[in-house]
Amino acid sequence: MLDDFREWLSDNLRYILLGLAVLLVIIIGVCIFRLATGSGKKGSSGTGKKAEVITESITEAEEADNEEAGVTMTAPSVEAGSDLVRDDAAILELVKKYYTAAAEKDSETLSQIVDPWNEEVEERILANDWIEGFENISTYSKAGPVDGSYVVYAYYEGRIKGISTAVPSLSRLYVVTNDSGNLVVTDWNSSTEVADYIAQVSSDDDVQALVADVNRQCEAAQEADPELAAFMEALANGTATEQDTESDDSDEETTSGGTAMATAGVNIRQSASTDAAIMGTLYQGAEVTVVERGTDWSHITFNYNGTIIEGYVASQYLDFGD
After folding, report:
1. Helix (H, G, I), strand (E, B) or coil at 250
2. pLDDT above 50 for 40
3. What is the predicted pLDDT for the residue at 96?
């Protein structure tokens, strides 16, 4: 019988080995499948899911008051073909740190990320007493005039003390890389070349579209919240607080009506102050409608491709045709 078994084993050995090989492949495949599916479940129900829930809860907390007022706000999207870079990680981190420190009056942190830092700069950044927080911050950046520099348009929703609806705003920052290789916020008016470059970039169609989008959201927020509208009007007139404007408009001689032409690239501000949010940018030669002409600041409207941008421009950059 043993000889018969040996003879049978010899005749069928190759089939037995083939079967064992197939079985081994199946076992290995099952193990790999279980390992792969186990890792996937861990990612979706563990850290990944937790991060998603945290993000949603933060968003709901920040937008609860706005939704109650019937206002929908969102950081604008970037147009196709635009060279604006949205939410670059390093730039976004810097800008969030900047506005958090500004809201908390944290001079120590600001001194580390603003260059140059002196009493004048500190006073200008910390002069704002009516915004208590900056929410939903997003950044849109373009390459600056020198290597390692960036023109940054920062979107945020400003939370004003005593008013439930936040204000969608867009501010411009000039960011450079310092000698230590760190990004810092600096003065874009430090040289004529830099200021001219930034004014030119700010006149690009994609930047103007970004400004117009934020302007529409700001107008919608004011239409939905009368208290906010009243505050913004007071701010524009220089009566919101003593620190909101650099000059006292009540002492200015003003006239109304007519048109004017921009003599250089210049910002349209939300109120008569260099610290106010940027509503748009005029290019040299742009024609504006004068709502009210003042000695230092003029209230104007600007028709940008069918979108009316209203705000304040330093009068020295306007030619009134006198």
Report:
1. helix
2. no
3. 97
